Amino acid sequence: MKVELYVLNLHSLYYTLFITENQPPFSSGIRSSVRVKQAEKRHFADPSLACALLNATTEILMGDLEMLGFLFEALCERDLRIYAESFGAHLYHYQDYNNKKIDAVIELPDGQWCAFEIKLGAHQIDAAADNLNKIRSQIEQDPKGKAPSVCCVLCGMSNAAYRRPDGVFVVPITALKN
């Protein structure tokens, strides 16, 4: 019990000192017939903190693309949160008990929402767009479901922003500006 209390106090301290940020789950009735996981995702406020703690050099990260992908996702989520907050929106994540997930969800003040899959490499765009389309289709089939207004793949290795024939936007991280 002492260890659990210590860990809780540490999490609280890190949050208070802006070392960590919590990304709450999105559960705004988008899928009324599906149970949505309610766990928050916890990130370092800046992904460079994780790099520093791991002594992750450029060479190490280039040799471990999975780790680089996690850090890239955290970087994008941090930027999306900052941009969303600037116009009164909120950043969430989505995962249900059928293992359907959306990396980032921005809910606008009027209740509309946007779904984002975050991928480091351009070779992952098709699979990410397919995932977004499947989730959107399932939500649209639910009479009580509210589908996303926009679906977007945020990509690290893409040179241009464009809209795919299926309606999913592909946007390079470099295009994010307030």
TrEMBL record:
Residues 15-120 form the DUF4143 domain. It holds the Pfam family DUF4143. InterPro entries: DUF4143. This is DUF4143 domain-containing protein. It comes from Candidatus Merdibacter merdavium. The lineage of its organism: Bacteria, Bacillati, Bacillota, Erysipelotrichia, Erysipelotrichales.
